[in-house]
Amino acid sequence: MRERNNAGGSGSYDSNGITSRNDYNENIIDVADLDERIVLNVGGVKYETYRSTLTAYPDTLLGTMFAKRDKALFQQTNDNEYFIDRNGHAFYYILEFYRTGKVLWREHTHTSDTSSSPTSSSLSLTSPITTSIPPVIRQILAEEIHYFQLPIKSVYTSLPNRAAAAKVDSFIHALQFVIYHLTSEFAAQIQIDFRRNKHQPHVKIENHSSTKLYNCVHEIVRPYGAVGYKILEKFGTEIGSYLMGLVPELKWKLKHVDNYNWYSLVMCVEDGAFDFDGIRESTCLADSINVKTAPW
């Protein structure tokens, strides 16, 4: 079975393998080829993906080249491996664009220590983890986006916007840590009030008397006493949806208390959300049966 790729017209490639923006002739593509797994060796860093992932964006460099199936355009090292002499670490974000349609890059994660910050994949009632992706500066990423001809706006934004975006992300990560510490203590519900007058957030943990947990949570949210109200005012609903997407067990309730002019945030993970059998299997108790049946 075959189908047409309506890329249209003809084009040319310079000595670096960059396509011109002329139209391309229609090409016949085997549907089975779209599921072909290929390896891209980018500057010595190897990535594996499907041909269809790249051809989903036919107007980009890789989309056009793999749709045309002209192997002369590549430095092919093996049957399904192709070498591209570009920045291998920055290509992580290029490939993620092909997969998600988004540039999953944040400047502040590449300009500061993130060893204590949870990532988007940190939470499912498990401990926070960190990324091992080497830092990529804005200028390098912008050059790679231009080279691969991705259909996105410039990654350059104003300094105020970048600073504010970093603070919003930091606030969201702080709430992730709160959820993690809350669930690690099997606590059910926490209420945090962020005041418009920029006073310190007020923390209340239901049915839990641990001073250590209270102090831990208070230290996490304390840096956001001056901005927490504004962040929740502008992005509160979206933040709630984002966190509940990461942690389906999470219950989120945000309301504005007009009389006192603050935002009251309640987060809850009910006791029934815990899979105690699964927890047991992830602890040293998983070996208890073997210990009991051991001959010694």
From TrEMBL:
Residues 36-164 form the BTB domain. GO terms for biological process: protein homooligomerization. It comes from the Eukaryota. This is 9228_t:CDS:1. It comes from Ambispora gerdemannii. The lineage of its organism: Eukaryota, Fungi, Fungi incertae sedis, Mucoromycota, Glomeromycotina.
